[in-house]
Sequence to fold (376 residues):
Amino acid sequence: MKLLKEYIEREGSVKDSSILKVDSFINHQIDPILMMEIGEEFKNRFKDKNINKVLTIEASGIAIAIAVAYAMKVPMVFAKKKKPSTMSEAYNATVHSFTKKEDYNITVSKEFLSPNDNILVVDDFLAMGNAIIGLKSIVEQAGAVVSGVGIAIEKGFQPGGEILKKQGIHLESLAIIESLENNTITLR
Amino acid sequence: MKLLKEYIEREGSVKDSSILKVDSFINHQIDPILMMEIGEEFKNRFKDKNINKVLTIEASGIAIAIAVAYAMKVPMVFAKKKKPSTMSEAYNATVHSFTKKEDYNITVSKEFLSPNDNILVVDDFLAMGNAIIGLKSIVEQAGAVVSGVGIAIEKGFQPGGEILKKQGIHLESLAIIESLENNTITLR
Fold:
């Protein structure tokens, strides 16, 4: 996606050879016009999939997910990292974060997933793929189907993309980072 | 706001006399069309304020904030509850959550607030007002101004609304809950 790549080249910066800082437009400060364009792009890329719900994880997936859900005119659900006091029965999965070097639980109320759902899973970043695999587990616990995965920025030098494709997942990444070596952002 | 009140009456439920469960459309599953309508409503209510940035807290404020920011065509920033490894200098505030009975820190990178900013603070709920007061502290640390506070659902039986108004804040709440007594949602 040309617009997203332009943002990455203009505003992104390299923190070390594996961390791309994009917090001026995607995961701390957010450009809402870019988000809505991302929403339209995913709508087009998954237009034949009969998506009826968009799923992400709090917090930085929410802005993208709401934009996609608005474009597709379907509800959005975000998995929570803590089970709220108001939630009764839930589906759960454990996700390992390599960035934060810790495991965390993600949870979605059983009320909001059903066996008839065709789910589009979206997130801001794809690196090792663990968050997406956790979300896929939750979808499958509900008897529903992951009909696609939409990622804003895939780290092409990490194995997440290959792992998901080997599982037969239809993956669409709007920008793929080939390398962050030598303090330089190289896009595929 | 009529549409939001209809959602609350149709889909909301009372968990005890102080907790309103609205997770089918606002803070777990989210209706994106409702969000965009909320965005337009806040745009109208604050149209004379020269807002140039929208500020909220992760996670459940993000969907509303992105919708408001999109309507106003300004950037959105969300305060984080954990300082990410990529963030350098930041403004901080401590917020006490009465629901969760704990203190937590909120943080915004110094990069994304400046003394010239006219900030609209938005959130899904207003109860005791502590989260908003924390965000206001962060805005003031940056030398910027809170030009308004937009809340989707205010608990009118808790003091947050009065506390904010006594501080001279222009507060707009789209729905005010008068009472949750007797397992019944009473709107003001």
Notes: Helices of chain A lie at 2-11, 32-45, 62-72, 130-141, 160-166. Residues 2-187 of chain A form a domain with the Rossmann fold fold (CATH 3.40.50.2020). Residues 7 and 25 of chain A are 8 Å apart (CA to CA). Residues 32-45 of chain A form the longest helix (14 residues).
